[in-house]
Amino acid sequence: MQRGSLLGMCLLAAATACTPLGGWVYDDPRLEVSRVRLDHDTTGPDPVVLGLAITNPNDYDLSTARFELQLRLDDITVGRFSRDSVIPVPELAIADMALPLTVPPDVVRHHITALSKGTHRFLVEGRATFSTPFGRRDVRFAHAGDLAFGGASSPVLAADDSAAIRQLEEHGRRIRSWAR
């Protein structure tokens, strides 16, 4: 019995000695697209803005050091972002940021106007560098999905939200009348 305990403790000591400290106490942040805005006025400074939500699952603050990403709508690259940027990401929280994308020259600007209506498939791929208590950490990410755009300069989510709000209000009226 003593020999088995000794062997177990030796294996445990070897496993913990070979694992870096950050491997036990660090989880990579998750990055997701929260919104995409296409501006009809493609001559403006920021015709494409990407909203990015960063979830920090750690019990300590992180900060970004660099972002590199590209946005594709219906397999057309409509914007890129590559910049050193320090953005705090609080512990156990979500940081939401808006990134103005650089639109590639040539044909893309007229595509932005065409893409600003209807439902389109998006794909964001990139890399974010985070400053952690254990040093810098590169995190690759990709997020894909469908977005519905309307005639305004932002996605058609307000109409869906207002319908949901009307349903909740109606549900609340029914509950209040039932409670009387």
Overview of the molecule:
By secondary structure, the protein is α+β, with helices and mostly antiparallel strands. It has a single domain, classed as Immunoglobulin-like. The chain is 29% helix and 44% strand. The protein is built from 4 helices and 8 strands. The protein has helices at residues 2-18, 21-25, 108-115, 158-179; strands at 30-38, 48-56, 62-73, 76-84, 88-89, 93-100, 118-132, 135-149. The strands form 2 sheets. Strands 3, 4, 5, 7 and 8 form a 5-stranded antiparallel sheet that branches. A 3-stranded antiparallel sheet has the order 1-2-6. Strand 3 (62-73) and strand 4 form a beta hairpin. The longest helix has 22 residues, at 158-179. The relative contact order is 0.17.
- How many E-type strands? 8
Mean pLDDT: 78
Specify the overall morphology.
Answer: elongated
Biggest sheet character? 5 strands, antiparallel
Structural domain count:
1
CATH level 3 topology: Immunoglobulin-like
* Uncertain parts: 153-169, 171-180
The total of helices stands at: 4
CATH architectural arrangement: Sandwich
Element-by-element helix/strand order = HHEEEEEEHEEH
CATH class descriptor name = Mainly Beta
C-alpha Rg (nearest Å):
23 Å
Helical/strand content category: alpha+beta
Produce the secondary structure layout.
Blueprint: H1 2-18, H2 21-25, E1 30-38, E2 48-56, E3 62-73, E4 76-84, E5 88-89, E6 93-100, H3 108-115, E7 118-132, E8 135-149, H4 158-179
Antiparallel strand pairs: 1-2, 2-6, 3-4, 3-5, 3-7, 7-8
